[in-house]
């Protein structure tokens, strides 16, 4: 074991040296060398199809078309299943999933192991590891982040207030996609002898397509998904998050120098390491506390601003609806605004990427559809609630049409697939700055609170994506402790690298992997969605039987 660890740290040492040398420009040289590859990969994933005057990324068409189909096929679950989802996540139907103790088990009070009553461990391990709420919190923590803070600002700056309407629409139909993929995640999961759950698209692609007679294709798609997910966990789900946290902290406290990022990265790595070593149960325990807290801070601040501008709420929604169908001149027309809104929403809630199905697969339940209905709340929280509140704050900031003109302009140049805008003098500015200015205009000093929120968002995203990546890693390299340790060490290494270096190309490359997950995942969903209807009937039937 000692030789094994020594070999790992020998491999890590050059990377740490690289991080320390970032201040001297080594990271810039590596970045420049890798940028052509990253640009090609991003362009490949975001391959466009001409629709009239517009070039629409095929991945966005696939996501929106799939979500629309599932919404119609399952009879608008975002509305018809919403009440059921709320009742399920609050435990109203837990009695149909009760875990009965095995015969002869000692059930004396106080006899517990890691929060489990000894007499129920065996039975429970066959059905999952975390509660409905914990699974939802873990999945939400992986999606709620800069997409809600900076991404909304980008959408509005590029597409005007009307982009908000299409973001909401995309979030509502995306609820159906989450319902499908997370139901399948539980249905086709594997459970080890020790009760550890292994689930996600890797398993429903391989096992589900095998049932349909496409075993070979299923294995290829599952392996492809796992490879892309590991890459996404190191980059967009990790290095990018630690980089943004380091940038915000350094900016807030006026810190400079390459060593600053290294120190921040090391501290983040230690904190992340403490959590992820404990596995999904510890991750779930942290996320069920941190997600409501961080979302609560952000939503509360947004509500303060909304109530402070209560007289303008009607006008703001008027601009949203008017801009959705009759966009202002220069904003690319109706289709342009629609594309911007859909694209930002798709990037924000990741419905269709399949990543959330990995977290939801660990839930304690006998009925896969019970977690499917819980999962449909995720795009609602992420996009419909939090993104809409952010949009209202930004619209209030420019309600008279003057503030945006002095900083950004509706229809300003920028990239709707990133969180970067160009201000009026042509310089590049992060979309988070526009959101920060909008909040500061009503709550002076909110930039400090926003920094805390960004750090919490980054931290929670990292621990969630560590689980996604680990599950994919285990699918590829086996479920032993050695494979587990190698992945976690590599993941923590990327926390430090992300904070200490500015590797835009690496982030661009790995972030595109998150979108690339859509292709193998959506193929599986189109083949397997009838299974979801069967599981939904079983769950509804069990609820009805329990009431009789």
UniProtKB/TrEMBL annotation:
InterPro entries: Na/Ala_symport. It is a multi-pass membrane protein. It is found in: Cell membrane. The keyword Signal applies. It comes from the Bacteria. Keywords: Cell membrane, Membrane, Signal, Symport, Transmembrane, Transmembrane helix, Transport. Its main location: membrane. Residues 1-19 form the signal peptide. The chain crosses the membrane at residues 54-74, 214-235, 255-278, 290-310, 316-340, 373-397, 446-468, 489-507, 513-529. Belongs to the alanine or glycine:cation symporter (AGCS) (TC 2.A.25) family. This is Alanine:cation symporter family protein. It comes from Jejuia spongiicola. The lineage of its organism: Bacteria, Pseudomonadati, Bacteroidota, Flavobacteriia, Flavobacteriales.
């Amino acid at each position: 074991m000692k030789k094994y660890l020594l070999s790992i740290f020998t491999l890590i040492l050059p990377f740490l040296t690289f991080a320390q040398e970032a201040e001297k420009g080594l990271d810039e040289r590596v970045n420049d060398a890798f940028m052509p590859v990253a640009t090609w990969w991003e362009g490949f994933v975001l391959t466009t199809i001409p629709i009239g005057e517009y070039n629409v990324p095929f991945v966005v068409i696939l996501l929106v078309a799939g979500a629309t189909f599932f919404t119609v096929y399952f009879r608008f679950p975002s509305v018809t299943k919403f009440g059921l989802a709320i009742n399920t996540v609050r435990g109203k139907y837990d009695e149909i999933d009760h875990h009965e103790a095995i015969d002869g088990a000692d059930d004396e009070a106080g006899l517990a192991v890691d929060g489990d009553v000894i007499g129920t461990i065996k039975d429970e391990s066959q059905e999952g590891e975390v509660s409905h709420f914990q699974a939802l919190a873990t999945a939400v923590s992986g999606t709620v982040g800069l997409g809600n803070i900076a991404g909304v600002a980008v959408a509005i700056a590029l597409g005007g207030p009307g982009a908000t309407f299409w973001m909401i629409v995309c979030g509502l139909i995306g609820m159906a996609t989450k319902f499908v993929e997370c139901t399948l995640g539980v249905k086709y999961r594997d459970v080890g002898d020790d009760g550890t759950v292994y689930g996600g698209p890797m398993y429903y692609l391989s096992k589900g397509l095998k049932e349909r007679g496409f075993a070979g294709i299923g294995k290829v798609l599952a392996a492809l998904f796992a490879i892309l997910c590991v890459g996404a966990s190191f980059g967009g789900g990790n290095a990018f998050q630690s980089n943004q946290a380091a940038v915000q902290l350094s900016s807030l406290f006026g810190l400079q120098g390459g060593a600053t990022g290294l120190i921040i990265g090391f501290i983040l790595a230690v904190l992340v390491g403490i959590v992820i070593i404990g596995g999904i149960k510890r991750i779930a325990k942290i996320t069920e506390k941190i997600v409501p807290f961080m979302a609560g801070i952000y939503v509360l601040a947004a509500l303060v601003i909304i109530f402070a501008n209560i007289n303008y709420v009607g006008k703001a929604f008027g601009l949203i609806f008017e801009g959705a169908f009759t966009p202002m001149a220069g904003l690319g027309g109706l289709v342009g605004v629609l594309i911007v809104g859909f694209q930002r929403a798709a990037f924000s809630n990741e419905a269709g990427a399949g990543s959330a199905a990995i977290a939801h697969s660990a839930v304690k339940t006998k009925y896969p559809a019970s977690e499917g209905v819980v999962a449909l709340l995720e795009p609602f929280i992420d996009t419909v609630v939090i993104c809409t509140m952010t949009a209202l704050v930004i619209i209030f900031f420019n309600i008279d049409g003057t503030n945006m003109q002095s900083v950004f302009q509706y229809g300003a140049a920028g990239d709707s697939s990133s969180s970067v805008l160009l201000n009026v003098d042509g310089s590049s500015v992060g979309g988070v700055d526009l959101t920060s200015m909008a909040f500061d205009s009503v709550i002076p000093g909110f930039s400090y609170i926003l920094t805390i929120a960004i750090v919490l968002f980054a931290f929670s995203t990292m621990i969630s994506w560590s689980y996604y990546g680990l599950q994919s890693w285990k699918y590829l390299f086996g479920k032993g402790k050695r494979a587990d340790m190698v992945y976690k060490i590599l993941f923590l290494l990327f926390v430090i690298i992300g904070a200490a270096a500015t590797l835009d190309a690496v982030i661009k490359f790995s972030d595109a992997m998150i979108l690339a997950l859509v292709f193998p995942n959506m193929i599986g969903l189109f083949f397997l969605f009838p299974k979801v209807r069967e599981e939904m009937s079983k769950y509804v039937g069990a609820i009805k039987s329990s009431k009789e």
